[in-house]
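URGENT: need a sanity check before tomorrow's submission.

F., can you look over the DUF5640 domain-containing protein record below? I want to be sure the sequence and structure line up before it goes out.
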Amino acid sequence: MRQNACGENFRAAHIIRQATRANYNQELSMEGTERHLGQLMCWLAIACIMASLASCSSKPEDAIVGKWSEIDGTETLEFFKDGTVSVVDKGTTRTGDYRFIEKDRMRLQLGGLGILAGPIDVVAKVSISKDELTLTLAGGDVGKYRKVK
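Structure tokens as predicted:
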């Protein structure tokens, strides 16, 4: 059976259209996959950023726990999870309590030393950066401490 030139051209055009459509559908499918992969990568990046921010922004109540040594002095502070504190300077130890009254301010209440000195009740601005603690008292006195490892 012979076909004329028009029939062959029609058939060739039909085959080309089908191949082009299949190729186009495959490209669309790949673009969709790439788009979904791109969205997935974006969400993973956001999740990683959120996790790192959460780990960096720990509560000051947790970050202050531990032993701190005065950078330019002899004083050592040790903050405990239960809200107690121990201050040692030149062989003299004072103990007391601390609590955060704001995110960056805490109240320290230390017991007295008998007739030598009465109790201490101070509010200090607190700044903790990595392994450095800065306490700024209302009068402007600043104490800088390094975390003891």
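My own read: The chain has two domains: 1-57, 60-147. Residues 5-56 form the longest helix (52 residues). If you see anything odd, call me.
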